[in-house]
Amino acid sequence: MKKLFIKDLKEKQRVDTTLLVTRKTLGVSKAGKPYLALKLMDSSGELDARVWDNAESIAEGFSVDDVARVKGSALAYQGKMQLNLSSIKAISGDEYTLRDYLPASERDPQEMISELDAIIAEIKDPYIKGLLSTMLAAGSELRAKFMQAPAAKMMHHPYLGGLLEHVLSLCGLGVAVSGHYKNLNKDLLLAGLILHDVGKVFELSYERSFGYTDEGRLIGHITIGTELVDSYMKKISGFPGELRMQLRHLLLSHHGTLEYGSPKRPKTLEAIVLSYLDDLDAKVNAVETLMNDPAGEERWSPYQRIFERYIYKGKYRCEEAGGDEPCPPEEGDVSEAPSPETEHPEEATKEKATEFDLFK
Question: According to the UniProt entry, which residue ranges have a biased composition of type Acidic residues (predicted)?
Fold first, then answer.
């Protein structure tokens, strides 16, 4: 059966596809008849669904976080697509690919991890290079999780492969900044950028839906990651104590301030830069996601709690850059740029007078 994605649904279409169940509620209608209210999703979006007939017996065939085969019809309700289902039943894990049901990076995970391998190969410090190569060794469980994990549940890069995409973006920033600030230890900074969120592979759950593990809620990714990295450093013969201390500090301080969850505030040059770059990349990704989100007005996002403001979605690009705005004339070409005197002579006179008055 070919999968039909939510984004491709059309009103009155007969539906036979597979979707991830993210919410399941058994209710009773005004007429006293049981019904099922569901939230379903795939990598292209989410929608509500209802089961009006045989709700109680159908409910026994699936649970929240199951990928299920659904049959029914699509309809528009209050401007949004919804499904009326006649049947829904869970399918086994070998019948689907997770990236079809959860948001995922547009980049290929194998391509991204190969890019990270190339970055690690360029590191000159043998201890840092050895640490990173060992932790992310080909075929290791940690490498597989690092390729799959989101960077967060909601705030930034909240999709499969998001952590690796975030790390690669940070590495690009780190290389650029290291070339500008000569006192930065580039290898140390890159190690911090690559490993700062490694604890998230165990803090977050992402096998069926995005959430938190028990370890994630009780301990958190900063402590999990620091302990994990430290366990690897202890196994490397002769690993310098100063380097071990500074790497641990990078992980412990990367959230920047105590109120944002950092046990320590950044106290080294590399830690300060790591904290700012991490915050920058997270916020840019969050805004870019808003810019591409059709929700809200055409030029403004819905109110964003994380930023405590609305975000303006209007864009400017001149025609020569592929946009809609007129571009300025080339240097020396004034034929398409009328002077204020010819277009609005009275305004030009006022402007000149004002400029003259300012320099009296």
Answer: 321-334
